Amino acid sequence: MGAVSAINSARKDTILLVDDESAITIIFEMELARIGYCVLTASNAQQAKQVAAEFPSTIDALVTDWRMPDMMGDQLVSELLAQRPGLKVVMMSGSPEAETASQAFHKDQLTFLQKPFGISELNQAIRQLLGPLNKPASQVA
What we know:
The protein is α/β, with parallel strands linked by helices. The protein contains 6 helices and 5 strands, in the order αβαβαβαβαβα. Strand 4, helix 5 (about 95-100) and strand 5 (about 110-115) form a beta-alpha-beta unit.
């Protein structure tokens, strides 16, 4: 019985990573998993919406590119927030317009990262939104 509660309290933060550049997705997926995240990936907005709709548990953060072939990142963010209101978001882009688009969202909800950046900056942005890594799942009063 004790083992079950230990598993529950050690739930990993789940990240949905969306980028149409497969090289970026592969590198970030490996690095985020190494840090200790559960990583779901999608190569476009439609796939991301499908993953979000089908994933049975909490998705803590969305890490998405802004410019994708099928939909802009801010539109994807709006649609996923309607589905999962507690979702935190890191939007990434090399485009200056993306930063402007990201300002439509509350800073506690969405952080913008200018490409290029490294895994440490990405992890720092995620932790700013979610709080410390490996936090217990339930607080005891």
